[in-house]
Amino acid sequence: MSENKRNRYDHKDSLEIGEKAEKLFLKIAVQKGWKVTPAPSRSNIDDHWDFLLEKGDKKFTIDVKAMKRLRRQDQAVQDEWLWIELHGVRMQDPGWLLAGKADLIAFEKKNSFLIVKRTDLIKFLPQLVDFNKTVNRACDAQYRIYSRENRPDKITLIETEKLKSIQWVEWFK
Q1: Averaged pLDDT of the chain
Q2: Into how many domains does the chain fold?
């Protein structure tokens, strides 16, 4: 792992978990007949997409999201809840959901990747999240806006199962 890729707030193994999910997603996509091209480094960072998928006349950019811990101190990742980024950790970064250029978002689950259109998720989120409720503890972030102290990021937690109603496809591992 290249330490210069590590986010300054990653004091554990988030980079490795993310890269493992991306490699597994890549393997599944290729098995399903997709031509997969990794995003250029700047596109991955600034435009928030990991791969270009191509098959026939279909072409999609996709951002792969690994399973996450609910709290930093948790030992294990989980797939019942998803962290959704509304503003990134960098001041100038509006985040992967609202400013990302990915057509699709692939959320890793224990046995699959649940794939949704990013624009569908943007439209769906107001039905779930109270954007007027801001909290300062991760344990209170369910359907509310959580911002960490002295950081510009804004994130929320939603139940993974809620996305079933807007799923584009689900790819099993």
Answers
A1: 91
A2: 1
